Fold this protein.
Amino acid sequence: MSKPLLHLVFGGEVKDPAGTDFVDTSKLDVVGIYPSYAEAEKAWQGVSRAHIDEAHIKYVIVHLHRLLDPDHPEAA
């Protein structure tokens, strides 16, 4: 059985909706860590849709497995 490919979903207020420069990192909303991209994407979609009318609120998916094991074949 292969290791799960961990993904982090978090977000908060950004200075510019086109970027990822968060205004106050102490107020980031950590949604969770997920064992697959599909599960992370589902969580990201839900929380992003909940803030659809707030242009300066942005959520992202971080590929934790790429940070933890950059040489893993699926890290690309």
